[in-house]
Amino acid sequence: MTDTTATTATTAKRSIREYGRPLWQRIVVSRESAIVGLLIIVAVVASVSVHGFSQPITLTFLLMDVAPTLLIALPMTLIMITGEIDLSVGSMVGLSSVTVGALVQAHWPFGAAAIAALLVGVIGGAVNGFLVTVVGLPSLAVTIGTLALFRGIAVGILGTTAVTSFPSEWTALAQATIHGTTLPYIMVPFVILLVIFVVLLHFTPFGRGIYAVGLSKDAAAFSGVHVARTKLILFVLSGFIASFAGIFYTLRFGTARGDNATGLELQVIAAVVLGGVSVFGGRGKIYGVVAAVLLIGSLSSALRLAYITSDVINIITGVLLIISVVGASVLNWAQKARRRPSQPVKAPPVATSTAA
């Protein structure tokens, strides 16, 4: 009786500490808000100290550069919250790019070629999801394999050649800005997808199921969450959006090659982890990931304008990512140490009956 009461009192005390803070504190005092603050600091410092960073054209090219990462980071956030990962997204960008290029070269209308590329992305995502959810293989091993598979197919279709004959109206649209602003048109579909994913993750039962799967897939299954279906849907979404990003990538640079977007998956994963998503699943918010993508893009743009080489930029980005992961681990350890009671909680005395 005493042990049970003590455990209940301790659990209640911890619950109050974790969830009793006001909503504004849970939003402001968070890792995601720290990334947003760091993004603002980097932008202000770069605008003052780096020549050309504050010009409107810099914002335009910055958003075009990070647009594929922003797009793919949306489904990647949800996948990593479930405790899985998709390393094949960069190869899917290259495969969809090659699909569009090969079909346009075969005199298909561009719209039909783009739809075919999107279908390729859906099929690729479904293959990943099937192997993870039905066959039961680890997503890390599966997507490493499909990373090589998709890239090999892309290179095999075009070889070392590149397709550059795309309709000028489509390439001009991919490089144009919204009338009267410095925002590229790719931001329109991104904002639409951002709203959809925010609502899906944070305001629907499906999104709560995603967090539940990441915390414990067994507990989520017993709570009524269809774990396999949830993961399958997310992998299909990842393939679809990666193929959409590949179409934009092709139009923006005006070329389809088998090696397009090589290494993009590492940039996406770095941004997602830096944005506050736990590599163990169960934690993360989309606004932190979006801020992390913009932070990495702004930092890279400012360093390039300061004539820093790409190797140094990669080193700085890697150090920033390591610091964020180590910092999160240290913070979690400190919070657990602070919450640990110094003395065991004593149970209240239990009245004993003296009735005959």
TrEMBL record:
Keyword Transmembrane helix: yes
Membrane-crossing segments per the record: 34-53, 59-80, 87-108, 114-136, 148-166, 186-211, 232-251, 263-280, 287-307, 313-334
A GO CC annotation given for this chain: plasma membrane
Primary residence: membrane
Key words of the record: Cell inner membrane, Cell membrane, Membrane, Transmembrane, Transmembrane helix, Transport
Cell compartment(s), UniProt: Cell membrane
The keyword S-adenosyl-L-methionine belongs to this UniProt entry's keyword annotation: no
Record Pfam families: BPD_transp_2
This protein's name: Autoinducer 2 import system permease protein LsrD
Organism, scientific name: Microbacterium mangrovi
